[in-house]
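Researcher: Quick test of sequence recovery. Tokens follow.
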């Protein structure tokens, strides 16, 4: 499936600042160098399949994250704020 992100837990330091971690994972999934914390994932070209892959990666740090969390908080800033250090 070509919509899945190429980013894996080994590509991103999951121990960094939550905003930087979420941004790095999404940037990798979208094939971008950076992701604006206020830009919507879907406005940047994300697909539902990408969300599944991104959540899989983010569970390396936040095991309780759910797919609905991304749909409810569709920007780096919103999702990182929700995840915090948990």
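Model:
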């Amino acid at each position: 499936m070509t919509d899945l992100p190429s980013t894996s837990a080994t590509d991103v330091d999951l121990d960094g600042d939550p905003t930087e971690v979420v941004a790095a994972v999404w940037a990798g999934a979208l094939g971008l160098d950076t992701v604006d914390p206020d830009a919507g994932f879907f406005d940047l070209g994300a697909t539902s399949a990408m969300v599944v892959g991104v959540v899989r990666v983010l569970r390396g740090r936040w095991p309780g994250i759910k797919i609905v969390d991304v749909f409810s908080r569709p920007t780096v800033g919103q999702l990182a704020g929700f995840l915090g250090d948990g």
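The chain has one domain: 18-83.
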